[in-house]
Write a structure and sequence with these properties.
The chain has 189 residues and is of the alpha/beta class. Helices cover 43% and strands 18% of the residues.
Length: 189
């Protein structure tokens, strides 16, 4: 005869409840990871050459917001940078020269910071003035949407809003890069 009035031992009851809780917790975690992987994979797939460039709106370090889709009809050079990346400084200077040279032909340069420290990125932007907006991607949603894994990386977007090419790393502005850019600028909408 049980001394607790015929009820199950409390330890056994808690253990079953704990097992059920852990099982549902693992199921929930598995579903969340599967959903994240599916969404993240889809976002990276959008940034492949020939696909539509993922749209975004980001604040500029100088103030105001910039939306990619507002530049449909222009060739967009999208550069990803960080204040901690020494090569990025060289890249931004070279892109500033390209922007000056090809602005009248329809080139728009947008530079997206992937810095964790927004204050540092803003200070960097103010101390390195450019002829194009330096944008702040606080949540890194844009860099994830474009599948950016290394810095600096540039993405060329044609006048129709499609990704033309993705260039990881920066090896300088060579003749082949300028030729790609000029071909896009010469291509009417």
């Amino acid at each position: 005869m049980m001394s607790n009035g015929g009820r199950r031992p409390a330890l056994l009851f808690i253990s079953k409840e704990l097992l059920v809780t852990r099982w549902f917790g693992r199921l929930t975690l598995t579903l969340i990871l599967a959903l994240y992987t599916a969404l993240h994979g889809a976002a990276c797939a959008d940034a492949q050459p020939g696909s539509a460039a993922p749209d975004f709106a980001l604040p500029a370090a100088s103030g105001g917001n910039v939306r990619l889709s507002e530049y449909r009809g222009d060739v967009v050079l999208l550069a990803f940078w960080s204040s901690r990346c020494a090569v990025c400084v060289t890249q931004l200077t070279a892109l500033d020269d390209l922007q000056t040279t090809y602005r009248s032909a329809g080139l728009v340069t947008l530079a997206v910071s992937v810095d964790d420290d927004l204050a540092r990125a803003t200070r960097f932007a103010k101390s390195h003035p450019a002829r194009f907006p330096l944008l702040l991607d606080r949540r890194k949603g844009v860099s994830r949407a474009y599948g950016i894994e290394r810095l600096p990386t540039t993405v060329l977007i044609d006048r129709r809003g499609r990704v033309h090419s993705v260039q990881p790393d920066f090896r300088g502005i060579d003749n082949s890069y300028v030729a790609q850019l000029r071909a896009l600028l010469d291509d009417p909408l």
